[in-house]
Amino acid sequence: MYGEKNVDGNWILTREDSTPDSERHTERDDLLFASLQVFFQGTQTQLDFEALATQHQIKPEDVFIDLHENYGYICIGTGENPAANEKLTPAQALQRQTSIKQALENEHLPHIAINGKYMGVEENSYFIPFNDKPLSMAKVMQGEIVRKVEKIAHAHQQDSLLICHRGYAAYLYTTGKQKGHVITGKTAVVYPGKEQLPDDCYSLFVNQHEEGGVGFTCGLDFNRIYSCIDEYAAQENSKLQLHYKDYVTQCDNITVTNLARKKLVVLLRGTDGYNLYGINLKNELEGRGLKAVIFGSDANIAKINEEVDADNKNNGPKAGWAWPQVRNEFLERNKKLYEFLLAKADVDVVIYADMNKVASFMEPYVKTAAKYDCEVISHVVNSFVFEPGRSEYIEKLCQRFGAFMGRHLMDFKSAAGQITADRVKTTEMDIAQLHGVPANELTQMLATKLKKNIVAGHYATTFAASMQNDKSEEVKAEDKLRFTGM
Fold first, then answer.
1. What angle do CA 395, 269, 279 make, to 5 degrees?
2. pLDDT above 90 as % of the chain
3. What does the alpha-carbon distance between residue 354 and residue 266 come to, in Å, rounded to a whole number?
4. Residues 33/27, Cβ–Cβ less than 8 Å
5. Looking at the domain 244-484, which fold is it?
6. Is 59 left (phi over 0), alpha (psi -120 to 50) or beta?
7. How far from the centroid of its chain's Cα atoms is residue 439's Cα?
8. Structure confidence by residue, pLDDT tens digits, 108-118
């Protein structure tokens, strides 16, 4: 999740604390990808922001903002950023710059010369763009490209590297007593032109005529220093595990019996907010005496990334896994978890949290629920996004999540999305779809539905004896059930 604010003509970008979004297909969804791909591949080494902006009918600074928020880059200093205890003459600094450039070329790393000024010293650097879109910042820091550039920096007695990925920033020391230490940040300032640069602490892209263009500064929190990359990665992983503590991510210790009762299945959909909504819904349901379980793609991805990190340290079976393997694993894990939860004896409601932007994504879950004779409903979280006249909100949503969100919104609103329908048509069955119902109201509807099924003798549950509904609320819920066809 991103925040953007214009102050005195400069853009202040903030990468807010958030969890990984469901699969982001940036190569398809970002309109700038084809233009930026030549820099990731290293076939072009001069970023002409004005030319790219003209081509895509945007502003030059928007090109860098897209690069900063959706992709990654590393900045390695040259002769002007030596180890803390080293002093170089201008000739030695130039020689080091030439040597670093050669080392980058030997490793086939794309690199773009940029200028800058830090701590009063004007310096040259190489800007190395890369595209590791699905990976977390922690995994990028532990990845191959950082290891390569870190090795080059250390071999050439360079003080440090700046590493950025999808709005996150990290400062990695590569020599001296602080070697390996990491400082991180989540903000950046983008300067549209040279005339708007501060007096110090900035980097500046220059065109083929050596004229300054777009500049930037990344904010770092020097109050928190990690002793190594692994310490930083461990903390980031622990944050994700805490966020998803209510989610089922493993099939271990799940008792499966042939006496499993029918359940209600809730498939959550939406542009954003479905993970938090799912947690709130689970808590509301359990507050009513219902047994609810929740699982989802984002939680499974976070869990698998944790397992990969552990295996990387111990040379375990998932060591070296990248996005293709992670993707296959979370899709398979989703299927297995769902089957286990549907077969579990003491569950009343199963919640699946995901973007689910087209109805076909929900099709396998509807089909499996039918096999277990379970009822399914779809609920669109933050459904106001899809109401007429929401162009201003949608524009802000695209700013927060990147240009690919525009593509997601097109998918949602397409015939395949069925996002505004009251009933979603699948090959297995039609299912009721609700829009923007608060978690407490949806809980009342689900509880009333379960009670009706119990009375009708469809199945029994320990919830029947403990259920104490407010009669007026139950009447309202029954009215909504009739209206939605549940």
1. 105
2. 41
3. 11
4. yes
5. Rossmann fold (3.40.50)
6. beta
7. 24
8. 888 888 999 98
Domain with CATH 3.40.50.300 in the chain: 244-484
What pTM did the predictor assign?
A: 0.68
Task: State how far the Cα of 100 lies from the Cα of 291, in Å rounded to an integer.
Answer: 60
Contact 348, 289 (CB under 8 A): no
pLDDT of residue 387: 77
Q: Do 266 and 348 meet the contact criterion of CB atoms below 8 Å apart?
A: no
Residues ≥6 apart with Cβ < 8 Å to 355: 21, 22, 269, 270, 271, 274, 361, 408
pLDDT of residue 208: 66
Instruction: Tell me how far CA of residue 69 lies from CA of 148, 179, 483, in angstroms.
Output: 23, 28, 43
Give yes or no for a contact between 375 and 430, defined as CB atoms under 8 angstroms apart.
no
Measured CA to CA, the distance from residue 197 to residue 388 in angstroms comes to: 41
Whose structure tokens read 């277990």?
372
Cα-flanking dihedrals φ and ψ of residue 268, to 5°? -85, 145
Residue 141 one-letter amino acid: M
pLDDT value of residue 210: 66
